[in-house]
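Morning, I've got a small favour to ask if you have a moment. I owe you a coffee for this, so here goes:

…
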Amino acid sequence: MKRTGFLLMLALLPVLSVAQAARLRLPDFSELAGKARESVDISLDGDTLKMARGFIGGRGNDAEFADAVKDLQGIYVKVFSFDKPNMYSMRDVDSVVSQVENQGWKKLMSIRDKTDRVEMWMHADNNDGGMLFVATEPEELVLINIVGKVDLQTLSRLQGRLGVPMIPGMPGIRPPTPPGVPGPGRRGPPPAVAPAPGVAPAPPAPPAAPPL
């Protein structure tokens, strides 16, 4: 019996190692939640996702969402919004990113400036892989770890569901309107009409005569 159990464990070891590699160790952040104005902490394992998929059916977006989660083994989300900057430590973020760096994940996106950082990592195994999304701002922190068969289309369908926030740059997200440019459904001032070539602009109208 012991020999059979040992051989079974060896047979399952590659599968378990893939799942464990895709499931990252996210910091607890329990103290951070007390400092945040808003916080989201989602932890859904494979059994919970199967149960959620059983309640979701029908047509349209619900059917697409149910199809998106069928190959997932876990969704883990941590989102924090603060009233003032520098309420969390970048060491906690780097501790998560270092895991994917050491395990050979592929970086799909990296955007950085003086204050903001956005990164997306995908596990190399497309059959039983995973995804890590990191977004940091002075007053906000987002960490998303998805375990299982996931691609950009799956991530797009998960936006706004099960605690996954809307991710800038993903399909279906309209980029912000630059300052001074009227956006859709918003009217700006009428454009100035330049005079025709060779025609001097009309002089201003004289002021009205005062009443007698």
Notes: The chain is about 30% helix and 25% strand. Residues 18-45+73-152 form one domain. The longest helix spans residues 2-22.
